[in-house]
């Protein structure tokens, strides 16, 4: 295999740790991601005790070759898009860390955790977009 | 070294023995917060966060108008990070002067030439030599680290002026 670019190296490291120690309710499609490191599919279960308990959602992560300096593009895909004030019906997620507040110290894991906690709250705690 | 890292790579049970977990945590302490590799040309911010200088430099270039620490969002800038020099690092070259700023590397030999000239000149014209060398020790040594800053440029400019003054002084001694 050819030498990995810095962004691929970092994605490879993130993929390894996310497969080994995934946050509760989050699973990454490791086979697909390792075939194409710039496009990941992450499965997310609705947190028990919330509006989304028992539901299953699918997130898509797209990375540019400037990752982690560029934020990943994260959207809900598939036919089950969570109904939430910060999620558009086309799957677009309104979360500041995915745009202006992105930092290269964030990761797929921290984005997943932010989305999980976003889904735990309803409007009011997050600034509307 | 190679043996231990190999052993760690092959045996990776989720709940490994306590010693292995501790080792791993120690290693992660020295990882760059951006590339997640062991930090190379490491620098630490005022807020205590560790990065490779090339990684941090790229982040500062990405958002020049809003330079914040990737980890804690504290203000951060090129001049306010501290390079770390481990035992194995014998050259102790400030990573901030490496290839990211080519004009600095070309300016450096000029500076050391000027320095050497002052030294040898000190023997020829004693009173003036003492003056220039005290100037060098008193003023340029403590701030030798932040090369490439405005202050460094100023010092270099001053040292060139002194060089020329010294040359004129020699000529005056010879011809007078
Ligand atoms: Zn780095
Ligand atoms: Zn910080």
UniProtKB/TrEMBL annotation, chain A:
<feature type="domain" description="UBC core">
    <location>
        <begin position="6"/>
        <end position="129"/>
    </location>
</feature>
<dbReference type="Pfam" id="PF00179">
    <property type="entry name" value="UQ_con"/>
</dbReference>
<dbReference type="InterPro" id="IPR050113">
    <property type="entry name" value="Ub_conjugating_enzyme"/>
</dbReference>
<dbReference type="InterPro" id="IPR016135">
    <property type="entry name" value="UBQ-conjugating_enzyme/RWD"/>
</dbReference>
<protein>
    <recommendedName>
        <fullName>UBC core domain-containing protein</fullName>
    </recommendedName>
</protein>
<dbReference type="InterPro" id="IPR000608">
    <property type="entry name" value="UBC"/>
</dbReference>
Automatic annotation (TrEMBL), chain B:
<dbReference type="GO" id="GO:0008270">
    <property type="term" value="F:zinc ion binding"/>
</dbReference>
<keyword id="KW-0863">Zinc-finger</keyword>
<dbReference type="InterPro" id="IPR001841">
    <property type="entry name" value="Znf_RING"/>
</dbReference>
<dbReference type="InterPro" id="IPR017907">
    <property type="entry name" value="Znf_RING_CS"/>
</dbReference>
<dbReference type="InterPro" id="IPR045103">
    <property type="entry name" value="RNF5/RNF185-like"/>
</dbReference>
<dbReference type="GO" id="GO:0005783">
    <property type="term" value="C:endoplasmic reticulum"/>
</dbReference>
<keyword id="KW-0472">Membrane</keyword>
<dbReference type="GO" id="GO:0006511">
    <property type="term" value="P:ubiquitin-dependent protein catabolic process"/>
</dbReference>
<dbReference type="GO" id="GO:0005634">
    <property type="term" value="C:nucleus"/>
</dbReference>
<comment type="pathway">
    <text>Protein modification; protein ubiquitination.</text>
</comment>
<dbReference type="GO" id="GO:0016567">
    <property type="term" value="P:protein ubiquitination"/>
</dbReference>
<protein>
    <recommendedName>
        <fullName>RING-type E3 ubiquitin transferase</fullName>
        <ecNumber>2.3.2.27</ecNumber>
    </recommendedName>
</protein>
<dbReference type="InterPro" id="IPR013083">
    <property type="entry name" value="Znf_RING/FYVE/PHD"/>
</dbReference>
<keyword id="KW-1133">Transmembrane helix</keyword>
<keyword id="KW-0812">Transmembrane</keyword>
<feature type="domain" description="RING-type">
    <location>
        <begin position="32"/>
        <end position="73"/>
    </location>
</feature>
<feature type="transmembrane region" description="Helical">
    <location>
        <begin position="157"/>
        <end position="175"/>
    </location>
</feature>
<keyword id="KW-0862">Zinc</keyword>
<keyword id="KW-0833">Ubl conjugation pathway</keyword>
<dbReference type="InterPro" id="IPR018957">
    <property type="entry name" value="Znf_C3HC4_RING-type"/>
</dbReference>
<keyword id="KW-0479">Metal-binding</keyword>
<dbReference type="GO" id="GO:0061630">
    <property type="term" value="F:ubiquitin protein ligase activity"/>
</dbReference>
């Amino acid at each position: 295999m050819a030498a990995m670019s810095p962004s691929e190296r970092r994605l490879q490291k993130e993929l390894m740790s996310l497969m080994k120690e995934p946050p509760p309710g989050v699973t990454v499609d490791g086979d697909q991601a390792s075939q194409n490191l710039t496009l990941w599919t992450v499965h997310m279960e609705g947190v028990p005790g919330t509006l989304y308990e028992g539901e299953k959602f699918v997130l898509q992560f797209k990375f540019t070759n400037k990752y982690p300096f560029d934020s990943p593009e994260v959207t809900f895909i598939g036919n089950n898009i969570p109904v939430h004030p910060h999620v558009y019906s086309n799957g677009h997620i309104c979360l500041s860390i995915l745009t202006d507040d992105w930092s290269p110290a964030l990761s797929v894991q921290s984005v997943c955790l932010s989305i999980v906690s976003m889904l735990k709250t309803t409007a009011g705690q997050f600034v509307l977009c | 070294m190679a043996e231990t890292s190999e052993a760690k790579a092959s045996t990776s049970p989720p709940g490994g023995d306590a010693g292995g977990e501790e080792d791993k945590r120690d290693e992660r302490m020295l990882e760059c917060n951006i590339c997640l590799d062991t930090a190379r040309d490491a620098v630490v911010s005022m807020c205590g966060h560790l990065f490779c200088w090339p990684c941090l430099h790229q982040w500062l270039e990405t958002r020049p108008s809003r330079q914040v620490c990737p980890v804690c969002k504290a203000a951060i800038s090129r001049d306010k990070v501290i390079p770390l020099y481990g035992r194995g690092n014998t050259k102790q070259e400030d990573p901030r002067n490496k290839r990211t700023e080519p004009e600095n590397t070309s300016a450096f030999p000029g500076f050391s030439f000027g320095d050497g000239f002052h030294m040898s000149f000190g023997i020829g014209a004693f009173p003036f030599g003492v003056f220039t060398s005290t100037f060098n020790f008193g003023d340029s040594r403590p701030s030798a680290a932040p090369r490439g800053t405005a202050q460094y440029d100023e010092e270099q400019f001053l040292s060139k002026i002194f060089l020329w003054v010294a040359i004129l002084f020699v000529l005056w001694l010879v011809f007078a």
